[in-house]
Amino acid sequence: MRRRTIKNMIISVVCASVLFMGVGYAYISETKSNLGVADGNASLNVVFTSVKAHQLQDNLAIDLGTSIATDAKTVTFDVNLIQTGDKILYTIEAYNQGSADAVVRNINVKEQTSSDVSGNKADAANAVKYVVEGLSEGAVIPSGSKVAFTVSAEYDNTAKVEGAVQKRVTVSLDYKVAVK
């Protein structure tokens, strides 16, 4: 009788283990699809296609041309602001060349250099404020489509510096596969 009880317990443990592994596999498979794991042929490739700069004066946008560098993955431009209150808008277009929809994780706006202005260096580093509009974290860029957004650079009215400010700025996008 004891032998039969041990045998039944072993069979019960094996059956419970198989059931537990099956449920675990189904859960992991569902979790992976929710994390945006695409099929083997899907690709992400969001590139910058155009940039235009406009200076705002008396609520009018003056075209500054397109003397802006782009290497498809980043956009680099010089910000030259003369006095507090000056503002330049950069209209940037990005195109999703990949076969999968892309979700924006982050829009990176980073200063590379800054010219000397009168005032201390900490104040000079914060003299220009950047605002991104038209694209935000979580936005979806469908495969094969373009999206336009603006980055504005404004010489802060409360800046404790004097004189012109010159900065080199780089914009890049961090993105992932969109979950359908």
Biggest pleated sheet = 5 strands, antiparallel
Shape category = elongated
Give, in spatial order, the strands making up the sheet with the most strands.
2-1-5-9-7
**Mean pLDDT over the residues:** 78
Quaternary state of the chains? single chain
3D structure, described in words:
By secondary structure, this protein is α+β, with helices and mostly antiparallel strands. The chain has helices spanning 2-34, 121-125; strands at 46-57, 60-63, 69-70, 74-81, 87-96, 102-114, 128-133, 140-141, 146-155, 165-177. It has a 5-stranded antiparallel β-sheet with strand order 2-1-5-9-7, with no helix packed on it. The protein has a 5-stranded antiparallel β-sheet with strand order 3-4-10-6-8, with no helix packed on it. Helices cover 21% and strands 44% of the residues. Strand 3 (69-70) and strand 4 (74-81) form a beta hairpin. It is built from 2 helices and 10 strands.
Question: How is this fold's topology laid out?
Answer:
Layout: H1 2-34, E1 46-57, E2 60-63, E3 69-70, E4 74-81, E5 87-96, E6 102-114, H2 121-125, E7 128-133, E8 140-141, E9 146-155, E10 165-177
Antiparallel strand pairs: 1-2, 1-5, 3-4, 4-10, 5-9, 6-8, 6-10, 7-9
What labels would you give this structure?
180 residues, 10 strands, five-stranded antiparallel sheet, alpha+beta
What's the short story on this structure?
The protein has helices at residues 2-34, 121-125, and strands at residues 46-57, 60-63, 69-70, 74-81, 87-96, 102-114, 128-133, 140-141, 146-155, 165-177. By secondary structure, the chain is of the alpha+beta class.
